[in-house]
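TICKET: design request
STATUS: open
ATTACHED STRUCTURE:
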């Protein structure tokens, strides 16, 4: 009886305590997120408050606060995760000029993020980096210079197109505006005036950006995402603007973002940007002052690779550099954002938590990936209508470094798809058996090929490398397994693959060792790269060390002497939060001779050359450089020389060449317009990119893509890379490109009729509607993208023209359809030097409409604003 009574009393006490806890305001889902955040702040210590401003925020068990990661990526599908849908790279999506489809893609992406996140949590996994409900997408910086390696992440060079696409992304990711919970928290990045170079982004000071360029070019997309899409995060950039680092810039983060635009949500720092205050920009003396400077300017969450400056906020308070009340202001936004997601509430009351894993890479999402890949295909040249190809051709050749290459289609900031249709596979599916001859032909950039010496190695009498694995990162204790590897190293944990039996997917290390006896005195090269920590030793001396979050192959030359034995060791350790990859081979380099290739092509008239670039060459702050490339950017916008030479050899042999270019940026294609009969810009097309390319090449899909960036003739048309003036840049300020913004060919022809305007004289608060008849004058159904540009008469300092409207219209062969485009008052806004802001000034304006930005493709009508 006594025991029963005690148990009952304890149970009642537990129930009472639990009931009380449920009644605390911050635990009540019926209250607003702001009310809950205010209550929770009163219960936190100063040290706890600071920790909740880390991008990897620790759990606070006493208050039921779970660990939370702010850093996940969803650039074109959930990144850094396996078995997800991988859509085309954003610059390719921009070529579609289809913001409706963009919305559907990011609605699907947010479904996959929610499903994967809740599945992981329910299976006992923690909320980790890259699998969270905060996604740092989209990148809406202006792609002002084709040399920038990260331009592929953007929606091109035009502020209006970027705004429309960015708004669609945010709405798709965050869910309906009237929903109780946000589906995800999207992020507009990188604020502001940020588009390379990668090599100087931590020290660059932009002190000569004209106010007009700032307000007309660099800020409009951010303004649209804040004021139209209610984006819940803005990421501040690395560089300085007018002497102040962007993450410590009061003008950007307070005056413009919060005071002028009314942004109420979270500002996150680019990773390491606060630390840059004292390590790179030298505007702060140490981490304590940097933490106070960043927070006072408006940064709410700090991202770091290691060592938070914000952990010093309590000391900054004690030294009077910042007040606890100021920190509470930041924490209110941070916690309200988390409550908006419902991540502190029971899944039963959060509808998004019920999204099943069956949505991930389902048929509907695969179709979206294919649809966008098809719409992104941009036909730049089609001499003598060589395309579409005939299916009854006896045989065609598909050659080039990107033809049989899955990862090139995935772009950067990508997930790993369930399956990939690469380009040679897509073409083979259209041809009879044995109808396609494939040959890699050449490397992306290197003028030599490597003859592997891997098979000439042995260790303890066994061919190849001895591999030893430990389930820790220090190669300590007893190994998990030891085995012999006979082929060049190419290992990955992607797809939940172990490096070897019993080796963990995380927290492991490896040692690969062998001996090599040189047959002659010569220079050999080691080709190696890793996602993780890798060191290469030869005879006990380190010759290469990398510590990277992606696999970038390095070329390491090494001189060997005939008959001498060399002990080769490769040491590897997996990095926290990252998948592990390693690649290693070595051998002798020999010159490329295209005569053998030409011999293989005997009897074949049509050759599809699939080349261009890849994310091994262009990307974010990359440590590997090749001729024409530096740190992820380019120094020369021409196609790499080895590919140009291959195309010249094909032309000299009399081949008809269809060039499929994979790149995230514009190429100076002047030589290729001569050596190639057709040029198809395929971007980085995602998991179904190869099928989309084949559909276009064989005429199963009529191309409709338009360039979202200017294709310049060569690098001489570009100003200095660090010069952020727009003079001579983009279609808005230059008129002599190779291929203009908005240009793209079709397999049919279109005629643009005379526009009818709803009004020709308006006030500065009125809209105008254009009705533009478009006729398909060819024999195939097709899609045209009608574009409307505005030019202010007499504005010699302004852009030549600037896009303010577009419309995709599908038109059957021989039919006419009317494109109706509305221009709101904002379409006539330009920067007014006198008032220091954007205004709609009285005066004459020209409306230019057509199917590219080139003057020859545009018709003009004038209007007056009173």
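STATUS: resolved
RESOLUTION: sequence designed for all positions
ATTACHED SEQUENCE:
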């Amino acid at each position: 009886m006594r025991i029963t009574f005690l148990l009952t009393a304890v149970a009642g006490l537990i129930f009472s305590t639990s009931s009380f806890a449920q009644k605390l305001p911050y635990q009540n889902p019926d209250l607003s997120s702001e009310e809950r955040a205010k209550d929770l702040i009163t219960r936190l210590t100063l040290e706890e408050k600071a920790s909740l401003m880390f991008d990897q925020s620790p759990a606070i068990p006493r208050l039921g606060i779970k660990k939370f990661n702010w850093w996940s990526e969803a650039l074109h599908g959930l990144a850094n995760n396996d078995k997800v849908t991988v859509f085309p790279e954003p610059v390719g999506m921009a070529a579609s000029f289809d913001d409706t489809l963009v919305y559907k893609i990011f609605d699907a992406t947010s479904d996959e993020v929610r499903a994967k996140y809740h599945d992981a949590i329910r299976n006992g996994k923690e909320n980790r980096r890259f699998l969270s409900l905060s996604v740092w997408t989209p990148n809406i910086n202006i792609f002002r210079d084709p040399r920038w390696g990260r331009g592929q992440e953007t929606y091109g060079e035009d502020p209006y197109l970027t705004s429309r696409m960015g708004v669609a992304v945010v709405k798709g990711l965050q869910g309906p505006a009237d929903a109780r919970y946000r589906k995800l928290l999207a992020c507009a990045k990188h604020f502001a005036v940020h588009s390379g170079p990668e090599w100087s982004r931590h020290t660059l000071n932009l002190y000569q950006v004209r106010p007009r360029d700032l307000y007309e070019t660099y800020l409009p997309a951010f303004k649209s995402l804040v004021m139209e899409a209610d984006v819940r995060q803005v990421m501040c950039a690395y560089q300085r603007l007018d002497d102040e680092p962007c993450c410590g810039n009061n003008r950007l983060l307070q005056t413009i973002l919060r005071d002028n635009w009314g942004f109420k949500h979270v500002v996150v720092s680019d990773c390491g940007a606060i630390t840059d205050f004292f390590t790179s920009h030298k505007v702060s003396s140490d981490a304590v002052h940097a933490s106070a400077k960043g927070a006072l300017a408006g940064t709410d969450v700090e991202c770091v690779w290691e060592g938070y400056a914000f952990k010093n906020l309590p000391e900054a308070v004690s030294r009077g550099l910042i007040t606890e009340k100021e920190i509470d202001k930041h924490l209110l936004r941070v916690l309200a954002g988390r409550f908006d997601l419902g991540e502190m509430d029971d899944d039963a009351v959060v509808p998004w938590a019920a999204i099943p894993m069956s949505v991930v890479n389902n048929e509907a999402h695969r179709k979206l990936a294919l649809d966008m890949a098809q719409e992104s295909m941009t036909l730049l040249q089609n001499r003598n209508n060589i395309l579409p190809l005939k299916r009854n051709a006896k045989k065609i050749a598909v050659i080039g470094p990107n033809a049989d290459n899955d990862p090139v289609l995935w772009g950067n900031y990508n997930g790993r798809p369930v399956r990939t249709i690469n380009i040679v596979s897509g073409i083979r599916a259209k041809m009879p058996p044995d109808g396609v001859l494939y040959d890699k032909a050449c490397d992306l950039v290197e003028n030599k090929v490597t003859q592997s010496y891997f098979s000439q190695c042995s260790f303890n009498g066994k061919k190849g490398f001895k591999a030893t694995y430990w389930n820790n990162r220090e190669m300590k204790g007893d190994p998990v397994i030891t085995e012999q590897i006979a082929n060049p190293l190419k290992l990955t944990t992607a797809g939940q693959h172990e490096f070897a039996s019993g080796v963990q997917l995380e927290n492991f290390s490896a040692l690969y060792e062998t001996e090599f006896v040189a047959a002659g005195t010569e220079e050999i090269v080691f080709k190696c790269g890793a996602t993780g920590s890798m060191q290469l030793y030869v005879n006990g001396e380190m010759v290469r060390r990398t510590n990277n979050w992606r696999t970038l192959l390095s070329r390491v030359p090494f001189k060997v002497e005939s008959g001498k034995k060399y002990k080769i060791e490769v040491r590897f350790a997996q990095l926290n939060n990252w998948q592990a990859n390693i690649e290693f081979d070595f051998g002798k380099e020999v010159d490329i001779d295209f005569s053998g290739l030409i011999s293989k092509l005997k009897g074949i008239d049509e050759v599809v050359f699939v080349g261009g670039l890849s994310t091994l060459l262009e990307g974010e702050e990359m440590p590997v450089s090749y001729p024409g490339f530096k740190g992820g950017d380019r120094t020369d916008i021409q196609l790499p020389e080895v590919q140009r030479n291959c195309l010249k050899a094909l032309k000299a042999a009399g081949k008809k060449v269809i060039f499929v270019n994979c790149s995230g940026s514009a190429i100076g294609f002047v030589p290729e317009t001569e050596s190639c009969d057709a040029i198809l810009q395929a971007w980085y097309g995602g998991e179904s990119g190869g099928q989309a390319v084949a559909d276009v090449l064989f005429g199963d899909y009529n191309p409709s893509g338009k360039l979202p960036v200017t294709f310049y003739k060569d690098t001489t048309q570009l100003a200095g890379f660090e010069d952020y003036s727009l003079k001579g840049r983009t279609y808005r300020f230059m008129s002599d490109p190779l291929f203009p913004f908005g240009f793209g060919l079709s397999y049919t022809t279109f005629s643009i009729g005379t526009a009818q305007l709803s009004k020709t004289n308006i006030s500065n608060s009125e809209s105008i509607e254009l009705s533009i008849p478009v006729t398909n004058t060819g024999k195939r159904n097709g899609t045209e993208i009608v574009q409307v540009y505005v030019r202010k008469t007499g504005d010699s300092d302004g852009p030549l023209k600037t896009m303010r409207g577009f419309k995709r219209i599908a038109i059957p062969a021989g039919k006419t359809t009317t494109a109706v485009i509305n221009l709101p008052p904002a379409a006539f806004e330009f920067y007014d030097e006198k008032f220091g802001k954007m205004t709609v000034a009285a005066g004459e304006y020209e409306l230019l409409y057509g199917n590219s930005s080139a003057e020859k493709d545009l018709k003009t009508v004038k209007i007056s604003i009173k």
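CLOSING REMARK: Residues 130 and 243 are 33 Å apart (CA to CA). Residues 1-21 have pLDDT under 50 and may be disordered.
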